[in-house]
């Protein structure tokens, strides 16, 4: 009997897989289920509606994130266009932004004052004075007193500034109109409403950024 036990131990030591197979055969095994007949657990089935609700909630967020990313990319390309244009005409970036604001105000029949321009560009009084001096020396604007209130000064565009503004906005406008051709008026109206909200949100973020940190 000792010899048999010794031989069995020797075999098990040299052939461990035999021991694992024999151990597996001796274990009690429950009834096997066919894979196709497996039923999800109650926890999984209860979580499924919640996962679907969560997926539906995240879809609008993903669409908004895509739009925000596109707006960031648009800002990068617009900044690049402004930089290229200003370098080609020997202007500062702030000078071009000032010309754009003055031109837009003049088109709407409301000439800007130096204070209004300073607020639009977030410039100090000293920086605004230096800016207007550069634009005057370049022959782009002139400061005129209001006929009704001599204390009020208007910024009026000169022909050279109008030509500069047209040279800046016309090529960009042509490319944008070409891009809009594939959309109908209803789609463009929806896009316009979106851009109005985008402008308001961006202005609000800029106003918050200007607030002093407590």
From TrEMBL:
Q: Which Pfam families match?
A: MarR_2
Q: Where is the composition biased (Basic and acidic residues)?
A: 44-58
Q: Where is this region: Disordered?
A: 16-58
Compositional bias (Basic residues) at which positions? 16-36
Q: Domain HTH marR-type spans what residues?
A: 64-200
- InterPro entries given in the database record: HTH_MarR-typ, MarR/SlyA-like, WH-like_DNA-bd_sf, WH_DNA-bd_sf
Q: What is this protein called?
A: MarR family transcriptional regulator
């Amino acid at each position: 009997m000792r010899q048999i036990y010794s031989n069995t131990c020797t075999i098990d030591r040299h052939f461990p897989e035999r021991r694992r197979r024999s151990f597996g055969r001796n274990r009690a095994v429950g009834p096997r289920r066919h894979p196709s007949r497996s039923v999800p657990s109650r926890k999984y089935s209860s979580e499924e509606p919640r996962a679907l609700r969560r997926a539906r909630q995240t879809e609008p967020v993903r669409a908004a994130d895509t739009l925000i990313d596109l707006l960031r990319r648009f800002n990068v390309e617009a900044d690049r266009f402004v930089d290229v244009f200003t370098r080609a005409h020997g202007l500062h970036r702030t000078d071009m932004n000032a010309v754009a604001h003055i031109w837009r105000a003049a088109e709407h029949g409301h000439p800007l004052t130096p204070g209004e321009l300073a607020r639009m560009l977030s410039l100090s009084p000293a920086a605004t004075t230096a800016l207007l001096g550069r634009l005057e020396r370049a022959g782009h604007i002139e400061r005129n007193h209001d006929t009704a209130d001599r204390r009020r000064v208007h910024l009026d565009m000169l022909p050279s500034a109008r030509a500069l503004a047209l040279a800046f906005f016309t090529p960009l406008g042509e490319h944008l109109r070409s891009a809009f051709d594939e959309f109908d008026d209803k789609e463009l109206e929806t896009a316009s409403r979106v851009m109005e909200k985008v402008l308001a949100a961006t202005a609000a973020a800029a106003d918050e950024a200007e607030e002093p940190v407590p």
